[in-house]
# Entry
Amino acid sequence: MSDDETNKERIKQIHTMLMEFASGNFAYNIERSNLDDDIEALIALVNMTFQEIKSSFIHQGYANLNETYKHLVQMFFVLDMEDSIIAFNSRIKQMLFFDDNELRKKIFSTFLTQDSKLAWDGLKSKLASTNLDAHEEYIVLSFKTKQQLILTTNCLVSKYVEQDNQSERIVITSIEIIKNSIERDIELQKMVSSRKDKNKATKHLQTSTKSKQLNLSFSDIRKIRKVHDHIINNLDKPLAPLIELAHTFGTNEYKLKYGFKQLYGQTVFRFLINERLRKASVLIQHTDTSIKEVAHVTGFISAPHFSKAFKEKYGFTPRDLRKQSNSRD
# Structure
């Protein structure tokens, strides 16, 4: 591979990493090389930034006494003693981006970084030499995704013997930590179990369900981001009803409504208005487009309606901004 091709591949990895960041996923990093150039410096900075963000989220959760953490299975492999993959869970395909044919019956260590291969070979030799029917041990392994990103995770490695044919098997379970609010759950359980005030408990449960954060998957986040991009690219067009918009992008109204606010800090409609006004302010300051035409191309039903919304947000009218811009020129 030529130097130009190598650099293009490294830049592509950085782009993929940033796209995962935009999706709210901080699980990956980029494998370092021995090169000493600006791209390698950028890779080091991206890796360090992601690690600090991930650590801050974990610290924030542990510092909150009303929150606790629970463990969730991320990836699950079953291997034979020759290191061949016999079975795996479906989440692996989402995490490593390989399909069934690329995973099944392949050698497990081919999906690891070089350092992890060495650590894995050492543990595998230990597992092969042990006489125990069952053995468990923790190890940190770094996986290489199809896009050459690195996923480092804590793994519980277990050895067991199948009762039917006495074949030895290795199970690798990758664990991730997620936040779980136990205080609210205990309170709701008490209210429901007491049954002293069924209506009050039901109302409280509904309110709590709406107010808590959604557990958005990477797929959910990508769909909501597509809605976000659709709005940005169609500011001059009327916004479809939320239920229709949600179905168009493969999600549901509830996830779109609350997930959008969770990701962008505002409702879908408020985001639309703010983006229309932002675009309008740019057009007013940097073009000669008439105020009436600016209102039209930014999707407002009339110039008066546009002027009212503009003043509510910025404290002055579009015409005032145009005068200020002209005076500066």
